[in-house]
Amino acid sequence: MKVTLVGVCNHKNVCITCCLRVRLIMEEPKCQICRTELGEVFVTEDPNKMYEDFGPKFKKHRDTIKDKEDSSIFYENKVC
Fold first, then answer.
1. Rounded distance, CA 18 to CA 61, Å?
2. In a domain, 70, yes or no
């Protein structure tokens, strides 16, 4: 997968389109694999990144890459 969505459970095997569709349209903020409630999620192009990798430095710049539809979705960069 070119782009992935990462939550606290670190599952990344689900299509980003499906993840966003379920989260935004169906309003179901849970992991599609383990059903863990996902508060903040991060969209990244790096398949090796874990939820924990998005630390204080990333959070400081959240406002510039926050999703317009859902304030709990954050993009690592503008390409995502």
1. 26
2. yes
In a domain, 34, yes or no: yes
* Distance separating alpha carbons of residues 54 and 33, to the nearest angstrom: 21
- What's residue 68's pLDDT? 84
Edge-to-edge strand ranges of the sheet holding 73-75: 4-6, 41-44, 73-75
Q: Is the residue at 44 inside a domain?
A: yes
Q: What's the mean pLDDT in 64-71? A: 80
Provide the 3-class DSSP secondary structure of residue 29.
coil
Domains contained in the chain, number: 1
Q: Whole-model pTM?
A: 0.81
